[in-house]
Specification:
Length: about 240
């Protein structure tokens, strides 16, 4: 049995990742924070469809460092970790409060790194040992009005490069996926005109769907992907590349 921890499984991309992995034979720890309904629905659906696999629901506010130790206690075998948790806010850097900076840093980097410090021995013990960050194309090219978000997404890419070198000899691979514009809750505030204008900029002529991302996560988790590490796959329909 192989176990993956999907951080942000309650979100749209995380849910697509969980669904693809469940149908690929993975047992899952499904993490979420506020959207408990999404986790409950997924849990019921996967338990019915894949009765021989195990599924667990876990809650953690990633801005609350005190919760990390208890969260870790609920994990036993871990063969792969996917970080699909995140949020953005549209504002000029001059408008971002120190509290908001701290929260965004905690969700995108600090808490993932605290988790990995403790999960590393489990991943090293695994015959797979996979870590994937869902970063963003903005981490590669940057975006005005999302400077903090772009900075942290870029930091995730830098982390992947550095940490992959540190743990390669343990048999752990560390990669990132940098999505372009994916149709999820995160973009639900865009007006119809904004979406039309955005789509015109995307060479393949459409927004991405969550399964455009989950497909690649599934590939990176396969045994045959063991020679790929420290990389970022940009999945953006050619946008911003
Ligand atoms: N959508 C895009 O166009 C796009 C493009 C590039 C990169 N990405 C990245 O893809 C990842 C998934 O985004 P998505 O589009 O699927 O967005 P989403 O549907 O809004 O999902 C966001 C996920 O992050 C979790 N999260 C947010 N704040 C949290 C906190 N304080 N503690 C714990 N979990 C927290 C949410 O949990 P709850 O809902 O349960 O609170 C949810 O599971 C993010 O890292 C995002 O930056 C998205």
């Amino acid at each position: 049995m192989k176990f993956a921890l999907v951080m942000g499984a309650s979100g749209d991309i995380g849910k697509a990742i969980a669904a693809d992995l469940a149908s690929d034979g993975w047992s899952l720890y499904l993490h979420g924070f506020k959207n408990q309904l999404s986790l409950d629905e997924q849990l019921e659906s996967y338990q019915n469809q894949f009765p021989k696999q195990d599924f667990f629901k876990l809650t953690l506010d990633m801005t609350d460092e005190k919760g990390v130790a208890t969260f870790l206690e609920a994990l036993f075998q871990v063969d792969a970790v996917i970080f699909s948790s995140g949020f953005t806010s549209y504002q000029l850097l001059t408008e971002v409060s120190a509290i908001e900076m701290e929260k965004m840093w905690q969700v995108h980097l600090k808490t993932p790194l605290l988790l990995l410090q403790k999960l590393q021995p489990k991943l090293a013990k695994s015959t797979l040992g996979r870590i994937i960050f869902i970063s963003s194309v903005y981490g590669e090219v940057g975006s005005a009005m999302e400077v903090l978000y772009s900075t942290l997404k870029g930091a995730q890419l830098a982390f992947v490069k550095a940490y992959s070198k540190e743990v390669a000899s343990l048999g752990i691979t560390v990669n990132a996926i940098a999505p372009g514009a994916i149709q999820t809750k995160m973009n639900s505030e865009f007006s119809e005109t904004e979406v039309t204008e955005l789509v015109q900029e995307i060479p393949v002529g459409r927004l991405g769907q969550p399964n455009d991302i989950s497909f690649w996560v599934k590939q990176l988790l396969k045994e045959e992907s063991s020679y790929m590490t420290g990389q970022a796959l940009t999945i953006s329909g050619g946008w911003l590349k």
